[in-house]
Design goal:
Elements (H helix, E strand, L loop, with lengths): L2 H27 L11 E7 L4 E22 L4 E6 L1 E3 L5 E3 L5 E2 L4 E5 L1 H37 L5 H33 L2 E3 L4 E6 L6 E2 L4 E18 L11 E6 L6 E8 L9 E9 L10 E17 L4 E3 L2 E13 L2 E15 L2 E5 L6 E5 L10 E3 L2
Parallel strand pairs: 1-21
Antiparallel strand pairs: 1-20, 2-11, 2-15, 3-7, 3-10, 4-5, 6-9, 7-8, 9-11, 11-14, 12-13, 12-15, 13-14, 15-19, 16-17, 17-18, 18-19
Length: 380
């Protein structure tokens, strides 16, 4: 019996080694290497200062626009066979064009009338044909009604006569409408000025082939002009409809007065500015579209929080809006927190904002490279 323990010991030695090896393997797998964290980005911070109250001179740059402006187009395609003539500065006749004053109803140009006259003639012939057909159908229907009343005509024949009468009636009505339409088109061969004003541009010449999409003339009414400027929300209380304002042009002419006729109900999403229009009489024509003017609204105290312009970044979820990166302490580490803000007026390298509080720190350098939640490291 002695050999037995020896054989049992030898047969289990490999098993013990396998168990020990497997245990070591499990032990090695249970030890996980640490996941490297994102290195912080180097940035500079700016501390939001307390609101500053200042007296701001409310003077705004304004653009002078026509009171009315329209592009004139022909209703039909055709060749231009006439352009209205005026006498030029050299005493010779020339085609009417840019800078010329025109009265309401003046024919500026017209296309070849023969083409449109042919369309009218065709419509008249079609109407005559359908009228004759309807007359015959009416006579047949009257005879059918008389025969049917004496039971000398069957119901199918009566229905056929009535159907023919109704069909020719519809065809005749359609021909009348086509004739009226062709006559209107013929009348629109002449391109007339819808109101009195100055021609800003002429895009056709004698012999030009035009279509309904061709802008032949651009005409503007500058007997009155609109002076348009933008105002921030904190001065809207100083502007009201009907208010009289003084406008000064850059050509050192005498100031003129006008009245506020339009205030936009919503601000431009890009600059938070409200559009305002002032209507000014311009009978002498010294105010021309495109000129620059200025409008003064006095002075107003204004309190705002300003931060560096470099701290402003686009809001990823809303491209038309803006945000800042606010530095916040999380578990002893600084991270960037994306926050939406509303922009106000700019001054030098700073901009007024709403959405941050005094004492908070915003990323002033490096904000464009950050995402919400990124770790940051402050550099001097």
């Amino acid at each position: 019996m002695k050999p037995f323990p020896i054989l049992w010991h030898r047969s289990n030695t490999p098993l013990v080694l396998v168990v020990l090896s497997f245990t070591a393997l499990l032990s090695g797998c249970s030890h996980q290497s640490p996941i490297p964290s994102q290195p912080p980005r180097a940035v500079r911070l700016a501390t939001v200062a307390a609101p500053q109250t200042s007296s701001e001179t409310l003077r705004y740059s304004a653009s002078i626009l026509p009171y009315a402006q329209v592009d004139l187009m022909f209703r039909s395609s055709g060749y231009v066979t006439n352009v209205s003539q005026v006498r030029g500065a050299d005493g010779r006749s020339r085609d009417i064009g840019t800078g010329d004053y025109v009265e309401q109803g003046l024919t500026l140009a017209y296309i070849r009338r023969e083409d449109l006259q042919n369309q009218v003639a065709q419509a008249q012939a079609q109407l005559a044909q359908t009228t004759a057909q309807h007359t015959r159908a009416d006579q047949d229907f009257q005879r059918a009604k008389a025969l049917y009343s004496t039971q000398s005509l069957t119901k199918p024949n009566y229905d056929q006569a009535e159907e023919a009468f109704n069909a020719t009636q519809a065809a005749m009505d359609n021909a009348k409408a086509a004739l009226l339409q062709s006559q209107l088109t013929f009348g629109d061969a002449d391109l007339k000025a819808p109101f009195s004003g100055y021609i800003l541009s002429r895009n056709i010449d004698l012999g030009s082939l035009v279509s309904p999409s061709t802008s032949a003339f651009t005409i503007a009414d500058i007997g009155r002009v609109k002076v348009a400027f933008g105002a921030p929300d904190y001065v809207l209380s100083r502007v009201r409809l009907g208010q009289e304002l003084t406008i000064q042009t850059e050509n050192d002419a005498a100031p003129v007065k006008g009245r506020v006729t339009s205030i936009s109900p919503a601000a431009d999403t890009r600059n938070r500015i409200f559009a305002v229009e002032v209507t000014v009489s311009n009978r002498d024509g010294h105010l021309r579209p495109g000129m620059i003017a200025s409008i003064g609204l006095g002075e107003v105290p204004h309190s705002s929080i300003s931060i560096p312009l470099s701290a402003i970044v686009p809001l990823p979820s809303e491209p038309d809006h803006f945000a800042v990166m606010v530095a916040q302490d999380r578990a002893g580490k600084l991270v960037a927190n994306l926050r939406k803000v509303q922009l106000g007026t700019t001054h030098d390298n700073s901009v007024a904002v709403e959405g941050v509080q005094p004492g908070e720190r915003v990323v002033s350098v490096g904000a464009q490279l950050l995402k919400d939640g990124d770790p940051i490291q402050v550099i001097p």
